[in-house]
Design brief:
- By secondary structure, the chain is α+β, with helices and mostly antiparallel strands.
- It folds into 3 domains: 30 residues; 147 residues, no CATH class; 303 residues, Cytochrome p450 (Orthogonal Bundle), CATH 1.10.630.
- It has 27 helices and 13 strands.
- The strands form 4 sheets. Strands 1-2-3-9-6-4 form a 6-stranded mixed β-sheet, with helices on both faces. Strands 5-13-12 form a 3-stranded antiparallel β-sheet.
- The longest helix has 31 residues.
- It is globular and about 90 Å long.
């Protein structure tokens, strides 16, 4: 068959047309991808134009980074900050969507007391499937943190609630001080006080957990192996683990070894300890072991104390460290700010909608013109008064995306304990320990946008303020009156002016007062929030105070580079418990106190935050507080009937 016969075939034009059309589509796709890639490389993602909801741009950014759980977290945290949400399909052929939440209005819908019943928490197996598309072949953890809303979780929560919510944890102060001082003295003796800070805080935290929750002090050799196994567990991609260099007893993995230790010492825990409560309970035997082992993983104090100590040492004047040592309320502010900047969990466990839902759209503004439709005629979410959530939608909330949201935080990248002056406590402190509860921030004066002027903005003045603001931004779009237009271009200035007006619209909205309390979640939210947060905060406070007692400084005065080169989304390692991973070592030097303080007296010197608040109310200045406490301590020692507790 010659060429003329081939060309005369009736199907040839169709084939050639299809090839030509495919070439055009591929060419346009490549041009679009190149343009998108250029925008990704040349702009801060949170400032780039973005489609809320299903976004091809988000998918492309993820593809360019390389698909992995860590990259989903990183790209989401950098992209969805200041947005509503981004959605991705659970698979190519599935209609189910995962919403990566970027606005506290949706957080409130998922975790709020009146609406949380519309959502169910997924367990570890389903979470792995959602994130990887695969069912895990290994046995899933059945400890209460890793389960959904099943009977096992409810049973364990009911069992442990009295211990975590009613116990007076000041009873642990002497033991915590003893454990911490043991490790600090060892560092001073063996390495002249020069240590890497994370090594030290991690070792101390594991020892405190074992002794306070399990009531057992392990022999040094066994304790060191446990530390090694937990270090391998919390960073599953560690080179030592990959190379098989951990050499744990029985050739066990870090996961298997620390669980075995948890089973063994948990079953031997003395009466009155949390582990004894679990071991003597009516939990099924397999759930007993799961929960006995789980609490060895309670390492939040190691990382929280690491960051708060580092920030205290950055202050070259020494004023921050001195104030932290003297004022326990200020220590709370510093700890709370460290938890905001370095939240101890990478994400809250996914929640799945149990029915179709509809909530008010916080981005809808009837005072502005509707946004233009998308490329395929899709109506932008911003034009709708409500947000529709389909049954089966999975919501994932990433604390750092909310903790660094400039709509609700003033200068969120700055470590500023002073932002909590009016609300210093992660937990609301009451003199009756049984009434301690999570604190809700009800205004934005604690570091939110517009700071102190926010109270002056009310619904009557807001309309005029927005109208004046709109006129101001529009007047700046003429380059003859604004040299910025000449320098950066009309398109760029129009985009920035619209963004600035949108910023003003959001932060002056009366709803911001309600949204604000849903933008801070260091220990999670709702019924599944961390039960041990009260004890964890007490441990962080004890570590911080004792390090200050040992005159901690950066080795040679050298500040680790992570404080100048690592943005928050660059620190995220979602698959490791070391969420905001301190990638650079922080070497510190310690000096043993000249005079040792008895543990009983030291605990009194630390004084409870509740007592300190009462002293503040009495008009006592913090400068004189330490002297007053020492006087009170001496008076107590003169009283032979004084109860040691």
């Amino acid at each position: 068959m010659d060429i003329s016969e081939i060309l005369s075939c009736p199907c040839v034009p169709i084939v050639l047309g299809a090839i030509g059309l495919s070439a055009v589509v591929c060419g346009l796709t490549l041009l679009w991808a190149a343009s998108m890639y250029r925008d990704i490389k040349s702009k801060c993602r949170s400032d780039a134009d973005f489609v809320n909801g299903g976004s091809l741009g988000f998918s492309l950014r993820l593809a360019l980074e390389g698909f992995s759980v860590d990259n989903v977290f990183k790209v989401m945290n950098e992209t969805v900050r200041n947005r509503l949400y981004a959605s991705v399909k659970t698979s190519m052929f599935s209609s189910q969507e995962i919403w990566l939440v970027g606005h506290p209005a949706i957080v409130k819908e998922v975790f709020g007391p009146g609406t949380a019943k519309n959502w169910v928490k997924e367990d570890q197996a389903e979470t792995n499937r959602l994130l990887t598309g695969k069912h895990s072949k290994k046995t899933e953890n059945k400890a209460m943190l890793y389960t959904g809303d099943d009977s096992g979780w409810k049973h364990a929560r009911q069992l442990m609630t009295p211990f975590f919510y009613k116990k007076d944890f000041t009873a642990f102060d002497k033991d915590m001080d003893r454990v911490i001082q043991k490790h600090l003295d060892k560092a001073c003796k063996e390495t002249s006080g020069n240590k890497e800070l994370l090594n030290l805080t991690l070792t101390i935290t594991i020892d405190m957990v074992v002794q306070c929750l399990y009531g057992i002090e392990l022999p040094e050799d066994q304790f060191n192996v446990l530390v090694k196994s937990l270090a391998g567990y919390i960073v599953p991609g560690s080179p030592a683990l990959a190379a098989g260099k951990l050499n744990l007893p029985g050739n066990l993995s870090p996961f298997e070894y620390h669980r075995k230790v948890g089973f063994d010492i948990g079953r031997k825990a003395p009466k009155g300890t949390l582990m004894n409560i679990i071991a003597d309970s009516d939990l099924p035997e397999n759930l007993k072991d799961e929960n006995l082992a789980f609490f060895l993983e309670a390492l939040t104090p190691a990382f929280a104390s690491f960051w708060v100590i580092c920030h205290a040492l950055i202050d070259k004047t020494g004023e921050m460290a001195a104030k932290q040592k003297e004022d326990p309320v200020y220590r709370q502010q510093c700890i709370k700010e460290a938890l905001r900047m370095y939240p101890p969990v990478p994400s809250l466990w996914p929640r799945t909608a149990q029915k179709d839902l509809e909530i008010p759209n916080p981005l809808y503004d009837d005072t502005t013109p509707p946004k233009k439709k998308g490329f395929f005629g899709k109506e932008p979410i911003e034009n709708s008064k409500t947000i529709k959530i389909k049954k089966g939608t999975v919501a994932m909330v990433f604390p750092s995306a909310l903790h660094y949201d400039e709509r609700f935080w003033f200068a969120p990248k700055e470590y500023s304990p002073e932002r909590w002056d009016k609300d210093p406590f992660v937990l609301e402190m009451k003199t009756d320990v049984q009434t301690i509860k999570i604190s809700s921030r009800k205004t934005v004066n604690y570091g939110g946008l517009l700071a102190n002027v926010t109270e002056e903005i009310n619904t009557k003045s807001r309309d005029k303020l927005l109208a004046d603001g709109q006129k101001f931004y529009e007047s700046q779009q003429n380059w003859e009156s604004n040299i910025r237009n000449y320098m950066f271009g009309d398109d760029h200035e129009k985009f920035m002016a619209d963004s600035s007006y949108g910023h003003l619209t959001v932060c002056t909205d009366p709803a911001v007062f309600d949204h604000n309390q849903w933008s801070f979640m260091p220990f999670g939210l709702g019924m599944h929030a961390c039960m041990g947060r009260r004890l964890a905060l007490r441990m962080v406070d004890a570590i911080l105070y004792n390090f200050l007692e040992y005159d901690v400084t950066f080795y040679g005065g050298l500040v680790p580079s992570m404080f100048t080169s690592k943005d928050y989304h660059e620190r995220i390692v979602a698959t490791a418990a070391v969420y905001n991973m301190p990638a650079d070592p922080a070497y510190v030097s310690l000096k043993a106190p000249k005079k040792s303080v008895d543990f009983k007296d030291k605990a009194k010197l630390r004084v409870s935050v509740v007592d300190h608040v009462e002293l503040r109310k009495s008009g006592i200045k913090s400068k004189k507080l330490s002297d007053l406490l020492r006087d009170a301590m001496l008076e107590d020692d003169d009283d032979s009937s004084d109860d040691e507790n």
